[in-house]
Specification:
The protein is α+β, with helices and mostly antiparallel strands. It is about 40% helix and about 20% strand. The structure holds adenosine-5'-[phenylalaninyl-phosphate]. The site of adenosine-5'-[phenylalaninyl-phosphate] has 22 residues, from strand 6, strand 9, strand 10 and helix 10.
Amino acid sequence: MVGQLEILLQQLDALRARALAELEPITVSSTLDEWDTRYLGRNRGELKSLSSVMPKLSKEERPIVGQKINAVKAELEKQLSLKRETLKQRELMQALEDERIDITLPGRTLPEGHMHPISRTILEVTQIFIKMGFNVVQGLEVETDYYNFQALNIPTDHPARDMQDTFWVNPGQILLRTHTSPMQVRTMKQMQPPVRVVVPGKVYRNEAIDATHEAMFHQIEGLLVDEYCTMADLRGCLERFAQELFGEGRKVRFRGSYFPFTEPSAEVDIDCPLCDGKGCRDCKYSGWLEILGSGMVHPKLLREVGYDPEKYRGFAFGMGVERIAILKYGIGEIRLFTGNDLRFLRQF
Ligand code: FA5
């Protein structure tokens, strides 16, 4: 019996030595788990198998073997947990090394943004008028028939409506504004003279599209109302504007025209900046280019908003932003503005 006990104790020592020898070279957590199951596993672990002889031992032998088993188990568990900790640390260091960020690498440069030529033109134009004392205000793109037409002296069935073929939201009542002029009436209704505003924004017309016409385009409206205000002031103001935008020495020409909301009305031309007024393909060899419509605010509008037409007078003008940008930057085709071609947009 003594011989058997010794064999058992030797087997336990051998198990311990083998287990520790196998543990030593393990470098991966998954292999460590396999080792754990093989030696310390609750069901089929080798230590558990050796413990199964316990019931066959004598009363005196059991505590000796029991202690030995516990001692071997305790040591294996301790070594396992040390190994686990070492592997965890090593794997963490490896992950840190693998995912290391090289902070000395130069950053990726983001492409620089460009202002759209229309936004840029609006900014340039409004800056000029701000310097002359105008305020910039925003209007509504969805308007009522009243502000877009009626209050501007364009009653239903007036032929002037045919010049601005309209996108109706609710026929006869709500529409996409066809020009920025509704803001003349809205602004005057909101404030007392002196009034000095410019209104940039989108406008919409149900028109045939060609090289110079779009269904959606931009306008900038200008309105000044004061006690002393004449056509000469309008001319001086627009001359200053044309020279600031297109260069000193630019000449301005007024041509009689008709708008129901201004009286008298005038189309305003500048001498062609592309050929210096000599005549070229762009100005159709006339030496002049039309840039906007304008006139003295019609007394009917002043009355409509409750201003006294005997006391106050005003001038108004409205320009197409695309047209101004085409002239200023020598752009051949209005569709380029909405074409989203980066080769075009990057030039601005
Ligand atoms: C008007 O819209 C008037 N409200 C301007 C005005 C304001 C006159 C204040 C008097 C006092 P007109 O329809 O001419 O006028 O348009 C003004 C400018 O908008 C034109 O000179 C042109 O540059 C531009 N424009 C008109 N239709 C188009 C279009 N389909 N596409 C691009 N630009 C356009």
